[in-house]
Amino acid sequence: MKTKYIIIVLGEPFSIFSEIIAKYFSKKKINKKKIIIIGNVKLFENQIKKLKYDLNINVIKNYIDAKSNIINFINIEFKFKKIFSKISGNSKDYIEKCFNKALEIIQNNNKEFIFINGPISKKNFLNKKFSGITEYLSKKTNSRNEVMLIYNDKLSVSPLTTHIPIKYVTKNITKNKILNNVLKINKFYKQIHKKKVKFALLGLNPHCETIDNYSEEDKIIRPAIKLLKKKKIDISGPFSTDTFFLKKNINRFDVIIGMYHDQVLTPIKTLFNFNAINITVGLPFIRISPDHGPNSSMLGKNKSDPASFIYAMKFIKKFK
């Protein structure tokens, strides 16, 4: 897949993302692809100046004016009094405009863009209308059956259900959803690795057993595995999560499909810390989010770890 541009939405204006970007671009050469940041240029420049970083910025109005070997910036108006402040609902419209501008640019040129977004406050921005940015972007792009993939070259994980309360997990586990997620991830891996992917599917219940008459493993998960094997997918399971993430097990697989968010995100972050990225599979374009939140407690302290953003930029090099 050939791409020409990396478009970066800053997201929450009072987050550590400006610091992360400054740390990366102050030490790394600009990617061969044209970099376009969307956000408030004045706030961004003031924040990185306060943190003692200096980046060469080219302010543009249209993406076609973007230049190579420099950070291009499309400005979105945002009124602020302090350069570092508390997160509030005051930034909601600003963030929405940033996303809208990015999607407006990308919609007619999907294959030319890789999309990166900075962290947002779900409480203030999504306001319970969406469970996460994964679902938000799926709705904005009229996509269906989006898939969350936490990616690392050595091992990736995907939760079948994403940002929903545990009490709703069982109702949202279906054979069709398992098939959709696995097949879409398999297609994505073929695009970037051109190899056969080895999948492991985790069970839902402790030890893949239940005292109830109804077993999700027997009624949903095992039948889904059989259907996927008929489609020539290399998949095994269901596995009990309590012992699965031992080294001898995870070395056998490329992608682990879990039934709910923390079942797979907790171990993957334990294994790789911030050397992983959140990819939304199933959108018209490649969307990546560095695996950290706004982290208000670290705001303005110049102590944030840019590892996940570094990993995102490294991953993008796979796309010529």
How would you describe this protein?
- The structure is a single chain.
- This protein has 320 residues and is of the alpha/beta class.
- The protein has 2 domains: 1-143 and 283-320, Isopropylmalate Dehydrogenase (3-Layer(aba) Sandwich); 163-274, no CATH class.
- Helix content is 34%, strand content 18%.
- It contains 11 helices and 12 strands.
- It has helices at 17-25, 41-50, 92-106, 122-126, 133-140, 175-192, 216-230, 241-244, 247-250, 261-272, 307-316; strands at residues 5-9, 34-39, 57-60, 71-75, 113-117, 147-151, 156-159, 198-202, 234-239, 255-258, 277-281, 286-290.
- The strands form 2 sheets. An 8-stranded mixed sheet has the order 3-4-2-1-5-12-11-6.
- The longest helix has 18 residues, at 175-192.
- The protein starts with a strand and ends with a helix.
Write the SSE topology:
Blueprint: E1 5-9, H1 17-25, E2 34-39, H2 41-50, E3 57-60, E4 71-75, H3 92-106, E5 113-117, H4 122-126, H5 133-140, E6 147-151, E7 156-159, H6 175-192, E8 198-202, H7 216-230, E9 234-239, H8 241-244, H9 247-250, E10 255-258, H10 261-272, E11 277-281, E12 286-290, H11 307-316
Parallel strand pairs: 1-2, 1-5, 2-4, 3-4, 5-12, 7-10, 8-9, 8-10
Antiparallel strand pairs: 6-11, 11-12
Structural class: alpha/beta
- In total, the number of domains comes to 2
* Helical content class: 25-40%
Which word captures the global form?
Answer: globular
Q: Provide the CATH architecture of the largest domain.
A: 3-Layer(aba) Sandwich
Ends apart, CA distance between termini: 7 Å
Main sheet specs: 8 strands, mixed
CATH top level class name of the largest domain: Alpha Beta
Radius of gyration: 20 Å
H/E element sequence: EHEHEEHEHHEEHEHEHHEHEEH
Rounded mean pLDDT score: 90
